[in-house]
Specification:
Blueprint: H1 2-32, H2 34-66, H3 84-115, H4 131-159, E1 169-177, E2 180-185, E3 220-222, E4 228-231, E5 235-242, E6 247-251, E7 256-260, E8 266-270, H5 276-283, H6 303-306, E9 309-313, E10 326-331, H7 333-342, H8 346-351, H9 365-384, E11 392-394, H10 411-424, E12 429-435, H11 442-462, E13 470-474, H12 487-493, E14 495-502
Parallel strand pairs: 1-5, 4-10, 12-13
Antiparallel strand pairs: 1-2, 2-3, 5-8, 6-7, 6-9, 9-10, 11-14, 12-14
Bound molecules: copper (II) ion.
Copper (II) ion binds next to loops.
Length: about 500
């Protein structure tokens, strides 16, 4: 309060001082003769203006050079995508043209204020109309603007064409929501599965993926904080969409920016040309990037080591807007393949074998392959091991119809795999062993286990295996591997095993 009052008081006193100085110079003028003084003041001002112009233009050029590292396209701000240089070129062409105009107009402005300063006998020229001048200041800007606009259109046409089927590209999908991105990868088949908003289910299908579409089986949806990993030198098409309000998919280092609009899919295509590591190595050359990352802690790593490409939402979409930032990591293709292989498909981890699974009771190709690999590995271990107990292999996926010895339909995949393995290992003889849990009487269990083992043997001989290499036996409930007191243990005990007799 009092500070404000003092400030106002000072201003008032300053104003009084200025008025008094004005009065004094008026008086001085009267004494010396007004015209002479005015003439002198005009001359001085004119010279000062020219001096100011020189300093001002030098300062402008100096600051442009000094701050060049914060301009797009230079040094640490070079683009990391194939088309990025073209966009930076547009910005810099515009900057170049405006600089020339800026320079010329300022020189003229200050020079004229000097040359045409008020002097005795000088009279202003009055021009009502001049066609030449009109033409010059219309045609020159028109030519310059045409050049800029055409350059922009050419760049737009180079950057924006969609990819076609024949192009080699990776398509991912980014769905914005308040506040984050769901990023979907196509998995091994390279194709994103279809989606339908009517299938959105907050419990396990927030994107509305159509699980009955085979292309959805291997799709991977990255969680809200996972790094987005992309391979270098690969054309990436990003499908961009939103679930609630307007967002904006913005990858500043790749000069990619596109609105994410609910109900209207947009896209952007870009090709990363520098891996995160390569970009860091470039930043390393600039002193400002060698300062500690944490300003409070001089011991912290230099900034270039902590550098990451990032995805940001460039639309103010609500109070959690800032949290839509994600790290984008560009890696070599080999590293990308390794990373991709480690990612789990959303269908397999959250939908498979639940009531939402449209393929309940069916086996997927990947599962058949996995089972074959698993069985081959078990068989190899059994062959390689010296210990007698390791010679027994559990046939994990052989099942029977309830209460009978009939093989379930899905068991045939495991038995076909076994047939292949035994055909490839022709010197091996095996015993097929049936086991049950302890429910029911001993004699019946023994009978069932024998019949089951016999059925497996029959299946294998029907597939062309030599009967002399196979034998079957039922052990009923005599050899449990789990606790018959629990359902889980009983399930373990109901099993079929393969024992290697000789190899
Ligand atoms: Cu947003």
């Amino acid at each position: 309060m009092s500070t404000g009052f003092i400030a106002i008081l000072i201003l008032v006193i300053l104003a009084v001082v200025v008025v008094q100085i004005g009065k004094i110079s008026d008086l001085a003028a009267k004494i010396r003769g007004e015209e002479e003084v005015a003439q002198q003041a005009n001359d001085t001002t004119a010279v000062w203006l020219v001096g100011f112009m020189v300093l001002f233009l030098i300062g402008t050029i100096w600051s442009a050079v000094y701050y060049k590292d914060v301009m797009l396209g230079y040094g640490p701000h070079s683009a990391a995508s194939a088309h990025g240089g073209e966009i930076d070129g547009l910005f810099n062409a515009t900057l170049g043209v405006t600089f020339i105009v800026f320079f010329i107009t300022h020189v003229l402005l200050f020079w004229y204020s000097y040359k045409y300063r008020s002097r005795e006998g000088n009279k202003a020229q009055f021009i009502a109309h001049n066609n030449t001048i009109e033409l010059v200041w219309t045609v020159i800007p028109a030519i310059v603007l045409t050049f800029l606009v055409v350059k922009g259109l050419v760049a737009w046409n180079n950057i924006m064409p969609d990819v076609s089927e024949e192009d080699q590209y990776l398509e991912i999908e980014a769905t914005g929501y308040q506040f984050g991105w769901d990023v979907r990868y196509p998995g091994n088949d390279g194709k994103l599965g279809t989606k339908d908003f009517r299938m959105i289910n907050l419990a396990n299908n927030s994107l509305g993926m159509d699980w009955s579409d085979d292309k959805s089986i291997d799709d991977i949806v990255l969680g809200g904080t996972d790094q987005i990993v992309l391979p270098v030198d690969t054309t990436v098409r990003v499908r961009i969409t939103s679930k609630d309000v307007l967002h904006n998919f913005y990858l500043p280092h790749f000069r990619v920016k596109m609105d994410a609009i609910p109900g209207l899919p947009t896209y952007f295509i870009f090709k990363p040309i520098k891996t995160t590591e390569e970009y860091r190595q470039e930043l390393r050359n600039y002193p400002e990037w060698n300062e500690p990352y944490d300003v409070e802690d001089p011991e912290s790593l230099p900034r270039w080591k902590e550098f990451n490409y990032e995805l940001a939402c460039a639309e103010l979409c609500g109070k959690g807007h800032y949290s839509m930032r994600r790290v984008v990591k560009i890696v070599t293709r080999d590293e990308y393949e390794t990373w991709l292989a480690e990612q789990k498909s959303t269908y397999m981890t959250t939908i498979r074998n639940t009531e939402d699974d449209p393929r309940l009771g069916q086996l997927l190709d990947v599962e058949i392959k996995e089972r074959a690999q698993e069985l081959r590995a078990d068989f190899k271990n059994a062959l390689d091991s010296e210990k007698a107990e390791d010679k027994t292999i559990l046939l994990r996926h052989v099942f029977y119809d309830t209460g009978s010895a009939g093989l379930s339909d899905l068991s045939k995949y495991e038995l076909d795999n076994l047939t292949d393995i035994l055909k490839n290992n022709s010197g091996v003889t095996v015993e097929l062993a049936g086991h049950t849990d302890s429910v029911g009487d001993d004699a019946t269990n023994l009978e069932i286990s024998r019949n089951r083992a016999q059925n497996v043997l029959n299946y294998l001989t029907n597939k062309g295996l030599d009967i002399s290499r196979l034998s079957s036996n039922g052990y009923g409930e005599t050899a449990p591997i789990g606790d018959n007191g629990t359902e889980e243990g009983r399930a373990q005990n109901r099993r079929t095993e393969l024992r290697i007799i000789s190899q």
